[in-house]
Design goal:
single chain; Rossmann fold; seven-stranded parallel β-sheet; six-stranded parallel β-sheet; 13 strands
């Protein structure tokens, strides 16, 4: 073995559909990989969050130029596959970790062609799985085909793992569930609330999508305000006009004009709103494991969320919050009214349970260590007995 081979670092690549994704969800793992003396490269489209490079050392970012998050054009996906294939051939990573749907599919196939080990991280099922149709069927087939070549498929909650196994989209031996991507419990920590005028503030943070439950939040807010006057309902989040689940601008204007919610726009630092809130609310239809809920819990807030995949893993009923059925504004309003009638001390007790639960289970260092165990296991084992090339798999089909 040459001296160069002896000193060559193990190289791990992280691939995602945006630099925003890397900045918001992957820095804990990147820092863990750095601490283990691994060479790390990030492959993602460049956006304003490229400043994440200021917070990490010795990381190379390779711009991904052909990934279109919302396009369903198969020719564009072929171009993406070819770009990833060229990058993998040149960089020769020992392991690639793919996040988000297109890297999970086309990146994983490119890794297979280059005989590179791969982890596919399913961070949420999103609009494609929540809504039936042709795109849903195609996505399921592509997932099933692609995951034949992955070494592991990592999910952010047990419900999603069970779903993929039940529907034979991935084998049980490959599938692992974790507790989301974790939350920085030093950055998100309890701050003085600053409650004013006896108001009880309910806070929704998220993109303004039907799938996030924004409509139910507004409907519930109207019901609660009609009965309990000292309540306020704040909404922080952006319109996502390219998402088929997005509410339209006219709807948002109507809500603001009706005064049942206070729309706060968007922010890059939600802690200012979190510390003023009494309760964090996310009536989502389905999640991987909602980071905004983890951030609220880390800041010592009671939670109201839905009894659905991902969300239900954050709440112990009556201890740190309440679970309500999906798409049920009436039950959401009832839960809000229960919170509104609690004393400040009772809210603080719930918030303390949230904080303790986060420190015990969801701290991002805990999650990074768990992910590192999976990485080491893959790097130390031989390649799987699954089909070793796309051509072989097509023959087996």
């Amino acid at each position: 073995m040459s001296e160069e081979a002896k000193t060559k670092k193990t190289k791990v690549a992280l691939v995602a559909n945006s630099t925003w994704n890397i900045y918001n969800f992957r820095l804990n793992l990147i820092k863990k990989l750095e601490s283990e003396k691994l060479e790390v490269i990030v492959i993602a489209p460049v956006d304003e969050y490229i400043h994440y490079l200021n917070n990490v050392a010795n990381i190379r970012h390779i711009p991904l130029k052909t990934l279109s998050r919302k396009s369903t054009n198969p020719f564009k996906d072929i171009v993406l596959f070819n770009e990833l294939n060229r990058i993998y051939k040149k960089e020769k990573p020992d392991l690639v970790i793919h996040y988000t749907i297109k890297p999970n599919i086309y990146g994983n196939l490119a890794a297979s062609i280059n005989r590179i080990k791969s982890i596919c991280a399913v961070t949420g099922l999103g609009y494609t799985f929540l809504n039936k149709g042709f795109t849903n069927l195609v996505a399921r087939y592509l997932y099933k085909f692609s995951f034949r070549f992955s070494d592991r498929v990592v999910f952010e909650n047990e419900d999603d793992r069970t779903l993929f196994i039940r529907e034979k989209l991935a084998t049980e031996q490959k599938c692992i569930s974790m507790k989301g991507c974790g939350v920085n419990t030093n950055y998100f920590r309890p701050l003085i609330n600053g409650r004013k005028n006896g108001k009880r503030v309910f806070l929704f943070i998220g993109r303004l999508l039907y799938d996030k439950g924004i409509v139910e939040f507004v409907e519930a807010a109207k019901m609660v305000r009609a009965k309990i006057k000292n309540t306020e309902f704040w909404v922080v989040g952006e319109l996502d006009s390219g998402n088929p689940s997005a509410i339209d601008k006219e709807q948002l204007v109507r809500w603001v004009n009706e005064k049942d919610i206070h729309y706060c726009g968007t922010t890059k630092d939600i802690r200012g709103y979190m510390k003023q809130a009494d309760v964090v609310v996310l009536p989502s239809y389905r999640e991987g494991l909602p980071k905004v809920i983890l951030e609220g819990m880390a800041m010592g807030k009671p939670i109201i969320t839905t009894d659905t995949a991902g969300c239900r893993e954050t709440v112990e009923e009556n201890k740190n919050g309440f679970l309500v059925p999906v798409k049920d504004a009436d039950q959401l309003a009832n839960a809000m009214m229960k919170m509104a009638l609690l004393s400040p001390d009772e809210l603080d007790e719930m918030g303390q349970v949230s904080r303790e639960k986060t420190l015990e289970i969801f701290d991002d260092k805990i999650i990074a260590n768990q992910f590192m165990e999976i990485i080491n296991e893959i790097l130390e084992t031989e390649s799987s007995t699954e089909p070793s090339s796309i051509e072989e798999a097509l023959i087996l089909e």
